[in-house]
Amino acid sequence: MNESKKVLVCGAGGFIGGHLVNRLKSEGYWVRGVDLKENEFGNMNADEFILGDLCDPEVANKSVQGISEVYQLAADMGGAGYIFTGENDASVMHNSSLCNLNVLHASYKHGVKKIFYSSSACIYPEYNQMDPDNPKCSEESAYPAAPDSEYGWEKLFSERLYMSYQRNFNMEVRIARFHNIFGPQGTWTGGREKAPAAICRKVAAAENGDRIEIWGDGKQTRSFLYIDECVEGIRLLMESDFTGPVNIGSEYAISINDFTKLIIDISGKDIGIDHIPGPLGVRGRNSDNNLLREKLNWEPKMTLREGISITYDWIKEQLKVTA
Domains in the chain, please, with CATH? Predict the structure, then answer.
């Protein structure tokens, strides 16, 4: 085995991590995965899998041994119902920070050549995202910093942590800021699911004439990126000479009301919408892909309808299995 082809995916038991493992395997890499849990949908194709907590430095040390490249996606996270209530702030900041501190330092000690870090659009200042129709999320707009959640603050701190190791220890670092990644084999129930999966589940479970609930007035805007496009962006960034941070997301913004109507239309059902109080996040967020196009000569191509159709069908099947 060519040692330069040995890679580690931290968070391999998760949604993006599981898909990334598959992509790396298809390219001929030998892949080690590490996570607190195995992938709940059986997406477990790593050559070796370490079941362990990266908050433990010994697990991090064991995981990076013999590895040339690291993809660090492990984090304590979830959708708005987990991130924006404030009830999980301490866990989010403590656990995610420890994962990054341990993985990054272990990678430095063991001579890892290159490391990818998955940051988030949640780092962007709340003051630039008050207008749902005109949010500002270009990479340089991250400062003066004012994320609307502790999750965003932790991600911003960790970006600086990785860049500090690059400056001080000459490590090759790559940083991407993800914007609402969705697709099959992602969490779709239980409280940590994100909006695309939650709305697909509600619509799939509803009958004609039913009404489903969404949080807020539905006028808040977001953009959503299909998982395969996200993984393509990760790989292009890792193979480039650009450190980042760079947005990986779609520039097609849509209100949650229209997004819900799109899913209802895909389902072919006659379903109404009720608005209820709930955690919302910022009023508007959309990826700015100017830097992505400039540095990687690439941008996502899949339409939202195509990606959501695939995801809706997958979640509909999950409901049948669990019924």
Answer: 3-180+227-248 (3.40.50.720), 182-223+252-288+302-322 (3.90.25.10)
